[in-house]
Structure formats: C-alpha cells, structure tokens
Amino acid sequence: MPIYFRHIAERLRLRVLSLLRPPRLGVRCLLIAENAGPPQVLLVRHTYIEGWYMPGGGVDPGESALEAAARELREETGFETIEPPKLYGFYFKRGSRDHVALYIVRAFRSAGPRAPDFEIAEMRFFPHDALPDGTSPATRARIAEIFAEAPPVDTW
Q1: How far apart are CA 128 and CA 37, in angstroms?
Q2: What is the pLDDT along the chain (156 residues), one digit of tens a residue?
Q3: DSSP class of residue 24?
Q4: Based on C-alpha coordinates, what's the Rg of the chain?
Q5: Number of domains in the chain
Q6: Is position 94 within any domain?
Q7: Do the domain assignments include residue 139?
Q8: Do 117 and 41 contact (CB within 8 A), yes or no?
Q9: At 124, which CATH number?
Q10: How many Å separate Cα 46 from the centre of its chain?
Q11: Could you say which DSSP state residue 79 is in?
C-alpha cells in the first residue's frame, strides 16, 4: 500500500478510536543529551501527523507507565534508558479525555538499530532553545517548562 494511503488509514483509525474508546493513559519521554555544548532534546516526526513531538505512546494493559515509557522509547528511537526515567509531570490532554505522563531521560544508550516501521518518519536532536518549525505547541511548552525549572502545569 502506498505510504499516502497508509497515512490516511492511520489517521482515520486514530480518529475512530478516539471516539469509541475510554480515556487512555499515554507517556512521553524527553531525552536530554548534555554531552558537549548546549543541551539537546530528541524529537520525532511521525508519518501520520504533521509536526515534531517527544517520543511516546499509549500504556498497554498490564503495563506500568514507566514500562510503557521504556518500551515506546526503544520502539520509536532505538534508545534504552541506563537509569530509570524521572517522572516530571502528569497532564490532562484537553479535547481527548486522555492523560499523559511525561518522563525525563538523561542517561540513555543505543539499544541497536531501530526496527523499520511506518510510524516514525524521522528523529533528530535539536538544541532545546532552537526547536524546529512544526514542533507541537505542547512539546514546546513542556520543554520550555523543564529548562526554566518551572513546576509542571496540569494541562498538556
């Protein structure tokens, strides 16, 4: 199936699920690389929605939010945590009835090559104060809060 049709099918599937399913818990991970120079953050661009986001996804049945964060990080980026991620905040996602747990990851390593999939089109590190055009408003807001050492707000 051409990528365009997969893109439309995935967006339609997500929209239908959002109307039929109960509220869901999602996780996001902010990877912060502090090697040399200013800190950089890892963002991903999905194939089925425009913009740049923090890696993450839904918590599966029987899985803790922390386990989901580690799994989504590995699946979407090919990185694994060296130390447990730190829970930064817990948010209500307006318009969807969902909630999001945001974890900060400062110690990570490659878990090997990322398996090919049709979900992630691109991933890149960016300076935390020079995010690319198209970065989602919520992603920008969370990164700004974290680097300003501000307390988390309650809405994603």
Answers
A1: 11
A2: 567 677 788 878 877 766 776 778 999 999 999 987 889 999 999 999 999 999 999 999 999 999 999 999 999 999 999 999 999 999 998 877 789 999 999 999 998 887 777 889 999 999 999 999 999 999 999 999 999 999 989 999
A3: -
A4: 15
A5: 1
A6: yes
A7: yes
A8: no
A9: 3.90.79.10
A10: 10
A11: E
